[in-house]
């Protein structure tokens, strides 16, 4: 069997490859998105005190640590039966928006934009962030400015720009000062202005989007607060491909609706609905589920997006403009929250005591999609079981099938061009997968051993 390997997949977080197996005529027999990284957070957290989880789990990833931090703290809130103060809720929401601004702007401007603003068929040495700086220096400068705001917001509220530590059982460990509020508000207003002005770039991508590119039809999952977009609250809702509701649930009910499984070609877990339907999460799914974004410029952008794609969107590359609309909404929402002087209140934590519930589930909307932290503890509060379901696992099936969809179109007589390879990568890149977050295994891992004959003169008994 002849195999084409695309390794590594570029401009994503983590390490992955694509394997395309050809039939005798040089056509595509199978194609898969393959990941062989392994991380073991679900196992080595067992035995730790649960209040340590919000400090441990951000180390899963340096790109989306905030989501793990907040989801973990939410699970701890349930275990200790804590009702956190309103100020703490707003600070956690701001913390999330800081990550959205940082993560979404990073992906849109630096990872996805080169394919659209430079061209997917341009040589790879030019089709990158350095090529973007050369061709569109102002866009690159604006990207750096808004990312700086996202990092500063995380640092001020979370204590550190990466791996925040301020979300604790019962709320937040510290408030923000009035000087910090004014500083962050000024930065937020600049970021909002840039986001509004650069929407024209994202809107231009709408007209360059191939509706059949990497096509899959799925259901969708995301959280909403009474139909409005939300990054840190509400119920989780599932709709089918046509927008009809399938179910909605709170965090602790997710096992009644979702099942995980594995395939032998990847260490990434897969997720699907209990009835066997496949679904997607993240920006595309959330925009399909919500009725509105809740902020003026993002709502106007959402209207344009739906004029192009329709009310319920399946198009894979639509993830890119959908992600931008969320970035815009986060900039606007940060301005709204920081405009309220009451955000500096010292009432940021409820007192917690002993364990009230031996299970807690934190469910939140991470930039890449729905994130679930499920902890079971003993009566002393030490972890006995830990399950994490991340967005990349939930999008894994769609990425895998999208890869094969494009491969069948562009592989001819056993040949694939450099541009064709990048088009396959673009399918994966649209989902902005976070491989570090997603590399967990169920049961026996599909390891393969290669036995190599001993080389002459090599003494295997010596260290």
TrEMBL record:
Q: Which PROSITE patterns match?
A: NI_HGENASE_L_1 (PS00507), NI_HGENASE_L_2 (PS00508)
**GO MF terms held by the record:** ferredoxin hydrogenase activity; nickel cation binding
The record's annotation in SUPFAM superfamilies points to:
HydB/Nqo4-like
Q: Which UniProt keywords apply?
A: Iron, Magnesium, Metal-binding, Nickel, Oxidoreductase
What does the entry list as the binding residues for Mg(2+)?
42, 388, 440
**Coiled-coil ranges (or none):** none
Q: Where does Fe cation bind?
A: 64, 437
Question: Which annotated residues bind Ni(2+)?
Answer: 61, 64, 434
May I ask which residue range the UniProt record assigns to the signal sequence? none
Q: Cross-referenced InterPro entries, in alphabetical order?
A: Ni-dep_hyd_lsu, Ni-dep_hyd_lsu_Ni_BS, NiFe-Hase_large
Please tell me whether the keyword Oxidoreductase is annotated for this protein. Answer: yes
Question: What are its cofactors?
Answer: Fe cation; Ni(2+)
Entry's family note: Belongs to the [NiFe]/[NiFeSe] hydrogenase large subunit family.
This chain's protein is named: Ni/Fe hydrogenase subunit alpha
Q: Which species is listed as the source?
A: Methanogenium organophilum
